[in-house]
Specification:
The protein is mainly α. It has a single domain, classed as Amino acid/polyamine transporter I, CATH 1.20.1740.10. The chain contains 16 helices and no strands. Helix 5 packs across helix 6, helix 5 crosses helix 16 and helix 14 runs antiparallel to helix 15. The longest helix is centred in the N-terminal third of the chain and has 34 residues. The chain is globular.
Length: 425
């Protein structure tokens, strides 16, 4: 079977990824700068009941992560979810998954840039204009660094992931003494549908399990190592996410829904005004690192789509090893800059951006789970867990409402392009 390369990263020439480094990479893929603002967005959507959304999504993560790990062990390949969809459903469906990834990145990088800008502006008291300026600098800086071929090393990415985990842990520990049971009442102020609304934005923090499948080809023994890495990653994010969710509601109460920088508010409970510059610096580095990495990977994804005939051929230029896919990067950059201008002018907010990104990522996850249902042995505990996660992911997508237009349009564009290409050929 010829492996697909629609969403592939290059396979490492030497398979030497260990349990520790693999866990760090996978945890870093799931964690991201979005978690710096998601607790407040979830609290605004559902109040204390947002805890239920965190718990449900964490429970859903177990079979999702286990399914992707099992597929990675059976089909160790750099293509990840696109490979599984190609095997299970076909090349056209795999192309749609590639378009979903590619289309989500401009929205995601604007979201990440805006998070960094918000924290810096909050620390410096610069307001909306200052936040927009910092966000623009993060985005433009990342585009320039990618255009000239500068890429962050794996060690730097691991360092940034470790920094995020440390910031989250410090925020939770700082807020722990201030947690009060009274702040969890009334528990369900917005009704049960508000929990679904919170889950639809929180999915931004739970996408990334497909990254483990992209790494599968780099382990010496994927069947042995990948499940271990998955279990450890699950433990890390469960502790951090649940701790953060409980601390945000229990320590801040209703104020959790009114702040754009919840980690600053949590850290301030113990260190006072010094929390602002500390959180701002951490958010700025994390945002730049995430945006730089997203653009680097997505630009190569666009080149791969062009090379494989799933997107215009001219996108493929610069996609060879050692080259810079500047045409693909220009498409991503143009879309991101346009969206950033719209956001800076106040015509879109961070909540909408993160929900839009989460909608595309949830669609990718659903496609991966559909492939798992075809490729994994049926009626096993793992297969039944994948069925449950498929239903939960579909439910989360249903709460995305009108934002489902985005993956629908991208899917139609992918199918339309493939059909047009066949007619021309």
């Amino acid at each position: 079977m010829q492996e697909t390369s629609i969403a592939a990263s290059e396979r490492a020439p030497v398979r030497r990824l260990g349990i520790g480094s693999g866990t760090a990479l996978c945890a870093g893929a799931v964690l991201g700068p979005g978690v710096l603002t998601l607790p407040s967005l979830a609290a605004a959507a559902a109040g204390p009941a947002s805890l239920l959304a965190w718990v449900v999504l964490l429970a859903m993560c177990v079979p999702v992560a286990a399914s992707f790990a099992a597929l990675g062990a059976r089909f160790p390949d750099g293509g990840g979810v696109a490979t599984y969809v190609h095997r299970a459903i076909g090349p056209r469906a795999a192309a749609v998954v590639g378009w979903w990834f590619y289309g989500a990145v401009p929205i995601g990088v604007v979201s990440a840039s805006w998070i960094g800008g918000t924290y810096v502006a909050g620390a410096a008291c610069w307001g909306h204009t200052g936040a927009a300026a910092v966000a623009g600098a993060v985005l433009v800086g990342s585009l320039v660094s990618n255009a000239v071929g500068l890429r962050m090393s794996g060690r730097v990415q691991l360092l940034l992931g470790g920094l995020l985990a440390a910031v989250l842990l410090c925020a939770v520990l700082a807020a722990a003494p201030e947690v009060s049971a009274e702040r969890f009442t009334p528990f369900l102020p917005g009704g049960w549908t508000s929990v679904g609304s919170a889950a639809s934005v929180l999915f931004f923090a739970f996408a990334g399990w497909e990254a483990a499948s992209h790494l599968s080809g780099e382990f010496a023994d994927p069947a042995r190592d990948l499940p271990r890495v998955t279990r450890r990653t699950l433990a890390v994010i469960t502790v951090l996410y649940l701790g953060l969710a409980v601390a945000t509601i229990g320590a801040l109460g209703p104020a959790a829904a009114d702040t754009d920088t919840p980690l600053t508010a949590l850290l301030a409970l113990s260190v006072g005004p010094a929390a602002r510059p500390v959180a701002a610096v951490a958010a700025l580095f994390l945002s730049f690192g995430a945006v730089n990495s997203y653009l680097a990977g997505a630009s190569r994804l666009g080149a791969a789509l062009g090379r494989d005939g799933a997107a215009p051929r001219w996108l493929a230029k610069g996609g060879a090893p050692g080259q810079v896919p500047r045409r693909s990067l220009a498409v991503l950059g143009g879309a991101a800059v346009l969206l950033g201008v719209v956001t800076g002018l106040g015509h879109a907010d961070l909540d909408v951006l993160m929900r839009a990104t989460a909608t595309c990522l949830a669609a990718v996850t659903l496609a991966g789970l559909a492939a798992a249902l075809v490729l994994l042995p049926r009626r096993t505990p793992l297969w039944c867990g994948a069925v449950a996660s498929t239903l939960l992911t579909a439910t989360v997508l249903a709460f995305c409402g009108w934002l489902l237009v985005i993956p629908a349009v991208l899917a139609c564009a992918a199918f339309g392009f493939l059909t047009l290409r066949r007619v021309r050929v």
